[in-house]
Amino acid sequence: VGKVLGEGAGGSVRVITRDSDGLTFAVKEFRPRKKNESKEEYAKKCNAEYCVGSTLHHPNIIKTLDILHSSDSSKFFEIMQYCPIDFFGVVMSGRMARSEINCCFKQIVNGVKYLHSNGLAHRDLKLDNCVVTFDGIVKIIDFGSAFVFKYPYEEVSHKATGVVGSDPYLAPEVLSPNKYDCEPVDIWSIGIIYCCMTLRRFPWRCPKSTDSSFKLFVMPDEHPHDYVQSAKDHHTLLTKRKGEKLLNEKLEKGKKEKEKQKENNEKSDKKSDKETFVENPEIKIETDKDQKTDDTASEEGVAKNLEKMKINSTEKQTSVSIETNIKKDKDSKDPKDSKDSNNPNEHADANKKFKQLHGPYRLMRLLPHASRQIISRILEIDPEKRATMKEIYADPWFQSILFCSEDEHEKPVNALNHNHTI
Fold first, then answer.
1. Which residue, of 16, 171, 302, 414, is most buried by count of CB atoms within 10 Å of its CB?
2. Domain named Protein kinase: which ranges (predicted)?
3. Where is the binding site for ATP, in residues?
């Protein structure tokens, strides 16, 4: 038995290595049985979590392999695939590129979509419940809070109750005493995960009115924001800048080539002149003499010019000094610049300048332009208006994300536009 990978309300997870072949696994030891819980109830809960995990087969879901228990059934152990990298640590390292963040986000969404297609909601999606392989494949773990909202061959979705999950990732409706749909709850959580990956901090501690950050978020925006048009404008601007950069690089390259050519020509001319001087020594003597005369004249001219420049410089400095002193006197007498000014417009401008930003844009402005449209829908307060999985997959930005995955033989298939932080 190796080190502890993680601990929670549902139990603790350790690394274990099998002696026969040296393979490594993650083993979850379920929490101890509660005093008011019968052996049968305890065994049923442990086996239920195993049954949920063992039926799931997807590149972005951890593989659940087996369940073991002690002879008296007082302890249960779940054997799972081992993934060595802690996703929370990767995110907080600050080393993730934007393309890597997008890749991980899409992988998580793919995993959640698979769960929902099987009538299962995770209900505790967070950075801590994701792990990563050495090949950059994200795996969702811990199905202790999972809820079956739709059984096979049923059309009706069942609603859940109770506060389940971690505070910063909770959807607002979970805190209400009413029943709620589980799919929008998971979708909200993946939106918070994206914000955490991008900003490396939580937008708020808990989605309730007593949290000042969340209170400001739920307020209406001061001005409407068209995130679709904003993304288009930003894309146009980036394209323009990229074109200008390429043009400048091309011009710079051409300039350097011309300078190099000029330098080569000068070297060639000097070589040619040298050969001429050797062949005609009389010309060389005359040229040296003329050059000496020219140099003497040139030195006299330079001396005169330097004298003129000194005089002009002295005059300019005197002029600037006088103008500066006049301006200082004027400024010191100007009532507009006084700290004790009673100008009402000035105070109004100051209040406007330090006015606290409120509304969803308070958070959206910190995210990449292309992601704002769908993330703003994912983080809709009203679950009825919140983006569905279908809408997420229809979003142009989400569709454009290149992501890593596994083929049918569990071999990694990596995207070419990024490397993973491991």
1. 171
2. 1-398
3. 34
